[in-house]
Design goal:
The protein is mostly helical. The protein has one domain. It contains eight helices and no strands. The radius of gyration is 19 Å and the shape is globular.
Length: about 230
């Protein structure tokens, strides 16, 4: 038991440290480059800036976020499969599968920017959307967040307090960034476009909170994975 305990916990902890390191580097590099761009606006046209610009697609921050979602999805899937095969009742393992599917969808969304396309359709349906809801994708996604929270929070409350609190904290930080900071940035974008200082700051906060939320939740999920695999040894 002790050998297995050490193996899984140490390796998952090492992986998390590596991911945190790269997360800090990515955010720090973007903030430095953004500071340079404020002094020299032409720097924004350089490929090196666009590779780390959180406002661009198919670059380093995008692929890193996709990687984090995939790892989170796989972790939730491991928990669900393990609980299923130790003969847990469906209500105690199936929510893990739902969580895994949602996280996998979010990885695809991050890569293909599905939510960005949803903005145009939502604006067309609701007609007059402005202010905090100018990026109208937050409306349908916000509704989905409420529905999933109503279904999943009772399940997470059954987990050990330590990992439960960490996972919920990570999810809360991510949602606050993805929806809350996004709504603030939408307001500034409506006023002054992508070069408005408020939009740049809010976008930076949004990306930072999203990565922080993913890494915090990953810490909790890794604990749940190692707890199960330890029991197997």
């Amino acid at each position: 038991m002790k050998l297995g305990n050490s193996f899984w916990k140490n390796n998952l902890d090492n992986l998390l440290v590596i991911l945190v390191f790269f997360g800090v580097i990515i955010i720090f590099t973007y903030l430095v480059f953004q500071g340079i761009a404020n002094v020299n606006p032409f720097f924004e046209n350089k490929w090196i800036f666009q590779m780390f610009d959180v406002g661009h697609e198919a670059n380093v921050p995008t692929f890193f976020a996709v990687l984090l979602f995939i790892i989170l999805s796989a972790s939730a899937l491991v928990c669900g499969i393990y609980d299923k095969f130790v003969h847990a009742v469906k209500k105690d393992w199936f929510p893990w599968i739902i969580v895994s599917c949602v996280l996998l969808f979010l990885s695809l969304d991050e890569l293909a920017q599905v939510h960005e396309q949803l903005t145009f359709h939502t604006q067309y349906i609701l007609r007059d959307v402005s202010g905090l809801f100018y990026f109208a994708w937050v409306i349908p996604y916000g509704i989905l967040v409420v529905l999933f929270a109503a279904y999943l929070i009772p399940f997470f409350l059954k987990l050990p307090r330590y990992t439960r609190n960490i996972i919920l904290l990570g999810a809360g930080v991510f949602i606050l960034g993805a929806l809350g900071a996004e709504m603030i940035s939408a307001r500034f974008y409506e006023i002054g476009g992508a070069y408005h200082p408020g939009f740049i700051i809010a976008s930076s906060v949004e990306e930072t909170m999203e990565i922080m939320g993913q890494l915090i939740a990953m810490f909790g999920l890794f604990r749940e994975v190692s707890r199960r695999l330890d029991n197997r040894v």
